[in-house]
């Protein structure tokens, strides 16, 4: 019989124990199921801000509309892609000239008619707002006559953007202030002794009491 050294026997025994332990550990690891936790963020819904009519139009759509209004002679301001009192007044003027309901809104009927007239280069409005005509027995319908009236409202720096007159009544689209704090507004004016005076729209804006071409831009815009 061959006698093995005691040290060799001990080494073999330790190696066997290590292998057994590794096998047991591997088996145990294999049986552990991995779990994945998924976190779902709640969907946030934002309520759309209230908008004025026509504000859903894109900037290109608005600029096209303003350019068409200019082509048919109903719009004299800049084509800026923003709908304000001047644009609404131009829409109403076009609607009146085209013989459709003058509500100042750019609906499907107005759009179709305006597009067709612009392509045909048909002049619908014989004169745009802001002309320098004088109405007999009333205040002159001119920048020089209307500007002092809008300046007297105490709104600070006021620029006269557009206006229109009919008899003793007039409306004026104005720009108040400048930069990010500026805004557009509409004044209603009444002739008084050959001059114009801004009056309370809440008191005088009664449909049927004012001429239609003054009521629509002067009372239905901001």
N- to C-terminal separation? Answer: 116 Å
Count of helical segments?
Answer: 7
Q: Do you know the CATH topology of the largest domain?
A: Nuclear Transport Factor 2, Chain: A
Number of domains: 2
CATH class of the largest domain: Alpha Beta
DSSP E strands, number: 4
Structural class: alpha+beta
Rg computed from alpha carbons, rounded to a whole number of angstroms = 39 Å
List the uncertain runs. Answer: 24-54, 128-137
Percent range of helical residues: 25-40%
Strand order of the largest sheet: 1-2-3-4
The biggest beta sheet, please? 4 strands, antiparallel
Average of the residue pLDDT scores:
74
Beta-strand content estimate: 5-15%
Shape summary: globular
Topology as a string of helices (H) and strands (E): HHHHHEEEEHH
For the record, the CATH architecture of the largest domain stands as Roll
């Amino acid at each position: 019989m061959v006698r093995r050294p005691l040290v060799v026997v001990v080494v073999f025994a330790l190696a066997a124990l290590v292998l057994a332990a590794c096998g047991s550990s591997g088996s145990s690891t294999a049986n552990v199921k991995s779990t994945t936790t998924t976190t779902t963020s709640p969907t946030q819904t934002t309520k759309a801000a209230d908008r004025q009519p026509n504000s859903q139009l894109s900037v290109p759509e608005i600029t096209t509309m303003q350019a068409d209004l200019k082509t048919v002679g109903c719009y004299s301001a800049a084509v800026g892609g923003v709908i304000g009192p001047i644009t609404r007044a131009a829409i109403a003027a076009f609607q009146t000239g085209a013989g459709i309901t003058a509500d100042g809104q750019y609906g499907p009927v107005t759009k179709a008619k305006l597009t067709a007239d612009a392509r045909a280069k048909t002049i619908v409005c014989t004169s745009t707002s802001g002309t320098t005509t004088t109405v007999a027995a009333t205040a002159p319908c001119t920048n020089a006559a209307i500007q002092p009236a809008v300046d007297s409202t105490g709104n600070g720096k006021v620029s006269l953007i557009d206006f229109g007159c009919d008899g003793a009544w007039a409306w004026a689209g104005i720009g108040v202030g400048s930069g990010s704090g500026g805004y557009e507004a509409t004044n209603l004016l009444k002739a008084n002794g050959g001059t114009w005076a801004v009056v309370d729209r809440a008191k005088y804006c009664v449909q049927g009491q004012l001429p239609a071409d003054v009521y629509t831009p002067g009372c239905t815009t901001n």
